[in-house]
């Protein structure tokens, strides 16, 4: 899963509005894109239909929570992903292990991430319950549960970069494969972010890049922005 990686470790997650936008984004992303939708923006039926259409073009579609990572959307996202075999599923940490097991039980294994938030303090993460936990203990627990990836959101561009780097290094050392940051990532800060983690040893680093690449009027991801981001990190 997720094998085609730029520089051996890098992929990008962009939202796509429809079939045409999907094709545009995939072309602009040169094969290093995981396209996605959010549960918050679709009914379950709409999400299922859209994913099935997208999977005529790609093997993997990401199902996000939406609503700024609203944990209440976990079950809706899980239903869309498990019904379609979407391939990539965003979940709050507290639900990630259950979701992974549920999908495997349905015979539709998913790449599941465990969402936590930064705290403003290196070495600490915040769960959706509001509880804080040491990054070291959290990484150990994620590894023990067999969850392949951690999502950190909202990182607010480079505001929480030190926390992201610390988490990435600890996850890589423990043997967790992926780190997925989200929130405020753009063409202006992506190079600094990638350079900060490229020696961490992490096998997969997948920024979720939404607001800065989405046309506010049409809600479509702008392929030129995708291409610009790829050009920046490929140089």
UniProtKB/TrEMBL annotation:
<dbReference type="Pfam" id="PF07071">
    <property type="entry name" value="KDGP_aldolase"/>
</dbReference>
<protein>
    <submittedName>
        <fullName>2-dehydro-3-deoxy-phosphogluconate aldolase</fullName>
    </submittedName>
</protein>
<dbReference type="InterPro" id="IPR010763">
    <property type="entry name" value="DgaF"/>
</dbReference>
<dbReference type="InterPro" id="IPR013785">
    <property type="entry name" value="Aldolase_TIM"/>
</dbReference>
